[in-house]
Amino acid sequence: MDRSGRIVNASYGLLKQWSMKNVLPKNVNLQLLRTYHPPPPVSSELKGHVIDLRSDTITKPTIGMKKAMMDALLGDDVYREDPTVLELEKRMAKYTGKDCALFVPSGTMGNLISVLGHCEHRGSEVLLGDQAHIFLYEQAGMAQLGGIQPHIIPTRPDGTFDVNEITLRLRIEDVHCPRTTLICIENTQNVCGGKILPSLWIDQVGSIAKSVGIPLHMDGARLMNAVVASGESAARILQGCDTASICFSKGLGTPVGSIIVGPEEFMYRAIRLRKVLGGGMRQAGMLAAAALYALENMVDRLADDHKHAKLLAQAISETGSKNVICQVADVHTNIAIVHLHPDAITPEQFCNRLSMVCDEESQVVGEQVIIKVFPWTTDSVRFVTHHDATFADIQVAIAKLKHVICEIDLQMK
Ligand SMILES: Cc1ncc(COP(=O)(O)O)c(C=O)c1O
User: Fold this and answer.
1) What is the rounded average pLDDT of the residues 266-290?
2) How far is the CA of 312 from the centre of ligand 1 (A)?
3) Which molecular function GO terms apply here (predicted)?
4) Which fold, 75-282?
5) Ligand 1 pocket: which residues have CB below 6 Å?
6) What separation in Å is there between the alpha carbon of 388 and the centre of ligand 1?
7) Model confidence, pTM
8) Which terminus of the chain has fewer CB atoms gathered within 10 Å of its CB, N or C?
9) Rounded to the nearest whole angstrom, what is the distance from the C-alpha of residue 361 to the centroid of ligand 1?
10) CA angle, corner 66, sides to 61 and 72, nearest 5?
11) Would you state the pLDDT for residue 16?
């Protein structure tokens, strides 16, 4: 979020960069001239140590995970005969304290099935934060496919919203209005920088929902990050929620797969919806085996990712730069948002600089390091730590970041 609350995604950032390039020679802008200019790169065909911090979705299955996938017992899951999928669903229902679970291909489908399953009538309305992934990045699936209207509430920097806003915005029985049928929350909150929602706040939202007879759904794409960082169990966090969708293919490192958890009567509707959306998979046990492996081997290690994100934030903060800023206290889990002073450098320029190497830098850092990140908002860049960026990678990334920040600060003096 920038200072005016606007969200900008990577593709927008790149478009902006190209159009700026095209107008600059003709329309010299004095403000732009005062901004940072990167040194020439070593070579345009640069090879080096690539540290990809764009997202935890880039993680690849480990050798142990691949072996578990090869050894999985299989059946036809559309017939509900795949023993590995059934085992995963049983494990996840227990883990989250819910009646049942359903394995689905992606987080987007998990959320869509959940919203469609709760809002059975066209003209329903869903209350959710204006920075929610479901609202921003899921193609308005609820509107496209269900005739459901999202009704957004301003998201606060900590990922929550004002609970009084729920009561103010509820629309239950008025011939002019849609009916509020569902509330959605997101934990950890991605756009706000991997923020953990306080469980007491979730409980409060849950009890308001219950008091007016509507369900609460959690987009828990990174629920396990919240579990590990807060020390609370998944069941405790989800106590006030009716359903949740949880991803295995983010920090847990599986190639594919998410799960919906919730009550038994809901799951029958969810199975039908999964089928019509094309998410009924046959021998899905290979993917469920990866998720079972991740539950055993990849959850506790998320603590390392959280430590790495904090290390990055700490190193940036210790530079004391006024142009490149990261608040350590804002890092709750595996995401660090780095803010850039608008007079110094744009997110696009910062990302481009991190993806290239100059001569002097290789001597200081000790090797040619390429950091991949992308613009997040009009004045920030998101760094996401994960299994495939080791402690050693983070150390060299820090060395490079410090060098680049120093370069920017020197030019802005
Ligand atoms: C918070 C959140 N919810 C849902 C999703 C969607 O997950 P998928 O990419 O598996 O569809 C993402 C993806 O990054 C996410 O960050």
Assistant:
1) 98
2) 23
3) L-allo-threonine aldolase activity
4) Aspartate Aminotransferase; domain 2 (3.40.640)
5) 57, 106-108, 133, 186, 190, 219, 221, 247, 249, 258
6) 19
7) 0.91
8) C
9) 35
10) 130
11) 40
